[in-house]
């Protein structure tokens, strides 16, 4: 497995596990998981200051530097990060 696919798989697992755990506001490491997922996609985010769970494995994240992202797992099981 290539390193990129491995990182994507780890990020997808982190999003899935975090979604089943406590809400993002109560789980400080969840912001780090979202930040790592965004960084793995090559997008800037210095720190996640707010997040909102839309559905299972579907989140909106706001970074300290003002960037906003939609992070989700698509139908093919791949993690997607879109700028908002």
3D structure, described in words:
This protein has 84 residues and is an alpha+beta fold. It has one domain (3-83). It contains two helices and four strands; from the N terminus they run ααββββ. It has a four-stranded antiparallel beta sheet with strand order 1-2-3-4. Helix 1 packs antiparallel against helix 2. The model is unreliable at 20-26 (pLDDT under 50).
Strand content: 25-35%
Please estimate the helix content: 25-40%
* Sheet with the most strands, sense and barrel status: 4 strands, antiparallel
Structural class: alpha+beta
Spatially, the strands of the biggest sheet line up as 1-2-3-4
Give the mean pLDDT.
Answer: 81
Total separate domains = 1
What general outline do the C-alpha atoms trace?
globular
Radius of gyration, in Å, reads: 12 Å
The helix-strand sequence is: HHEEEE
Give descriptors for this structure:
single chain; 4-stranded antiparallel sheet; alpha+beta; 84 residues
């Amino acid at each position: 497995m290539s390193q990129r696919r491995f990182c994507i798989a780890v990020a997808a697992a982190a999003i899935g596990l975090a979604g089943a755990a406590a809400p993002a506001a109560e789980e400080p490491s969840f912001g780090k998981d979202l930040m790592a997922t965004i960084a793995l996609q090559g997008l800037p985010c210095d720190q996640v200051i707010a997040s909102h769970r839309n559905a299972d494995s579907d989140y909106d994240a706001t970074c300290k530097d003002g960037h906003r992202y939609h992070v989700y797992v698509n139908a093919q099981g791949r993690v997607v990060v879109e700028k908002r």
